[in-house]
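Risk register update: the risk of archive-format incompatibility is retired. Evidence:
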Amino acid sequence: MSNDSDARLTELEIKISYLEDMVETLNAMVAKQHDQIDMLIHEVSQLRQRQDDAPSGAGFRSLRDELPPHY
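Archived output:
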């Protein structure tokens, strides 16, 4: 092989190495986000269950409906 071909091959190997590292990083990030999404789905499910279990008279209360003591 000529020096030009060797240089191109080396450059491609470097690029592939960076791409492999990026794929591994993105894979770890996606796995972490998957775990976070599962946790959030579980929490939303628990909140819905609590809301369903609450007495019907309690209803939804907004913090905006409650004025701080200085008003």
